[in-house]
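REQUEST ID: PR-0412
SUBMITTED BY: lab tech R.K.
PRIORITY: routine
TASK: structure prediction, single protein chain
INPUT:
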Amino acid sequence: MVLVNQQAVRAADDNAYLERFITAQQQFILRCAGKNCGRFVDRSDDEFSIALMAFYEAVQAYNPANGGFLPFAATVISRRLTDYHRGQRRFSCEIQLAPQAFDGTIDPDEGDTSLQLAVAEQAAQPQALSAAGEIEAANALFADYGFTFYDLADCSPRADKTRTACAKAAAVLLRTPGLLDEMKKTKQLPIGQLVKSSGVPKKVIERHRRYLIAAALLLSGDYPMLSEYLQGIRKELERCEL
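STATUS: complete
OUTPUT:
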């Protein structure tokens, strides 16, 4: 147990070691996911991807003074999966609708036409990516900026003050017209403009460059599951006064 605690601490500061640590703990992650779901979970399941993201989060947030790492990680995984399943249940209710609603044809004589229209519009939309698919898509996007999703655990802010500063910088990036477009065009974080507009020290922005880029790309794109991974910064964004 002590060895795992030490490994978790090292993984938080060593990205190369983090990947090896994650690989070594995959069976633990799978067991935690299976226990929460009450069934066997394998690496192809969305629940594994959610649990994997939660494990990264646990590595970032772990404090040895508060106890063992594995019980802490199991708690974080359980909470994230519970949140995920709660969200899934919102869409689990079945409603009686005319079959035409699903092929885009609206029958005015069949029940609530507004509901039929809503379902028809939803059916016409492309299906949302799974969590695993979102990670794959995000990695392809991050590659243009020189990092991967797995790097986020290494560059995420840990102190409350730093998280608040990063949230303010991210808010400026997301809400200033043209700034996000410039970043996407040049594949570079506009550090100078962020320092000037946000008041966040240059040193903080440079240190958390990858995190700010990732947060802006995920929160401005179609990544609902990965955006949940940034729940902390989303809350900070809501509190920012620009």
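NOTES: Residues 2-89 form a domain with the Rna Polymerase Sigma Factor; Chain: A fold (CATH 1.10.1740).
REVIEWED BY: pending
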